[in-house]
Amino acid sequence: MSLETMRPNPTWDAASYEDAVDTLAAHNDELVYKVWGGDWCKDCRALLPDFGAALEAAEVSDDRIEEFALDQDKQGPGVEAYDIELIPTIVVEDDDGEELTRFVEDEAVPPAVWLADELEAALETETA
């Protein structure tokens, strides 16, 4: 089941988030985004449409985005395995399944910006 809240926000302005989009685009064929949320969740409705738009702007293919719809008890696929407590939660993994970073509901900046900053730091460390 996919998340309606991941449908890209048509009014999102990619130019305002150029650095984040560039970072996501630079790695669009080597990372997997696992998104836990619920269409009933106000935080998911507030955050995920813009994140969906950022992934679209970065040309991240659908096969690199996995969406997990949770019920109102925050139960669903992968919740225990990934220790999901708050939603939305976005886990970014490399192709080997290694978790590089995760965004959890209450970060101070939008998911695309937060993840791009974290990915730059994580991937810079790997190549340094």
TrEMBL record:
**Thioredoxin domain mapped to chain residues:** 1-128
Q: Which InterPro entries match?
A: Thioredoxin-like_sf, Thioredoxin_domain
UniProt cross-references to SUPFAM superfamilies, sorted A to Z:
Thioredoxin-like
Tell me the protein's name: Thioredoxin domain-containing protein
Q: Which organism is it from?
A: Natrinema limicola JCM 13563
